[in-house]
Amino acid sequence: MKYLRFFPFYVLSVLPFWLLYIISDLTFYLTYYILGYRKKVVRKNLNVAFPNKTKKEINTISKKFYKHFCDMFFEAIKLLTIKPSEIQNRFKINNLSKLTNHLKNHENVMLYTAHQGNWEWLTTVPLFLDVNCNTLYKPLSNSYFNDLFILMRERFNVHCIPSNEGYRHLLHLKNNNIVSMNCVIGDQSPLGKSGKQQTVFFNQQTSFFTGAAKIAKKTDSVIFLPYLKKIKRGTYELFFEKIVNQTATLNEQHIIDMYAHKLEEIIEKYPELYLWTHKRWKRDGITY
Fold this sequence. Notes:
Layout: H1 2-5, H2 7-13, H3 17-35, H4 39-49, H5 55-77, H6 84-90, E1 91-93, H7 97-104, E2 109-113, E3 132-137, H8 143-154, E4 158-162, H9 163-175, E5 180-185, E6 196-201, E7 204-209, H10 211-218, E8 222-232, E9 235-244, H11 252-269
Parallel strand pairs: 1-9, 2-5, 2-8, 3-4, 3-5
Antiparallel strand pairs: 6-7, 8-9
InterPro entries: LipA_acyltrans
GO molecular function: acyltransferase activity
Keywords: Acyltransferase, Cell inner membrane, Cell membrane, Membrane, Transferase, Transmembrane, Transmembrane helix
């Protein structure tokens, strides 16, 4: 049934990478030159993040970002059909032992992630280690695309949990002594009355969700920030940067401060691999 419902995306997914990248190039031309999708937002974000860069440098990063952005979309669709062996050839993990040592020691691990590199491919990590894996997500208003993304993300044994159920579910695992690795995206802008704290991020007072820090403390998790280096199209190297070893003695503000600082360092190193199309500072005084 799923093949019929998502037939157009399965057709795309079975295409070889070289053909997908031709389509990606065409999509880039349409998105960047014809439609100009969120170009003002991207350049505003880049100018806020890198005030010392020239207009030429900003334009160069912007164009590289859009090329990566289009590639990432088709690489994500590829998750529907890609063979595990091909993922293992294209997705190199630099320091997996950092995680496995803690898991073997019966410690929970939180991947405090960001919209960096190809974050959708993080759902393939269970191919490389045997552990209960969960990711918290905010359901999309469009049920068709919501179900499509769940299908892609759960293909390699990641359990997708709606964010409003995540705390209760992960605490249940801990109370039942089930060691888990849990993925929470931390760089989204908090909405409405969501729990939030501010910290300095690219020289701006920036709001961050407190949920990830709260969950990490309650589940006694070791916190890592995973990030990706793009070797070439369709080939990435994944790194794990430890942020916190013992969460019990730290407050939420300290955890968020360390996360934001480390994420900023990574973005400065690979600026074209970050998601610049969202209005990150809209609720922190920046006018778009």
